[in-house]
Amino acid sequence: MSSKITRDMLMETANNVLTYSNETKKRKFVETVELQIVLKNFDPSRDKRFSGTVRLRYIPKPKFTVCVLGDERHCDEARANNIPAMTVDD
């Protein structure tokens, strides 16, 4: 099997997990499904193809809090928007 997966395979697998969770094995709590993707030979500081912002359609939790972990530029931007922030050195 190759290490690369197609978009269709990813969507089919995610749908299978959700179908199993909703129909076959019902639980009495909210279940979280996490997906972790590892990119080989990718340097995020050099290559900016995958950087960006995603705006969620729905707020996941009404009282959701965040703290930005980043360099000085990101921390300054977060503090300007009244968001708690920490540098790696903190």
TrEMBL record:
Signal peptide: none
Transmembrane domains' residue ranges: none
Superkingdom per UniProt: Eukaryota
Pfam families per UniProt: Ribosomal_L1 (PF00687)
SUPFAM superfamilies in alphabetical order: Ribosomal protein L1
Name of this chain's protein: Ribosomal protein L10a
Source species of the chain: Adineta ricciae
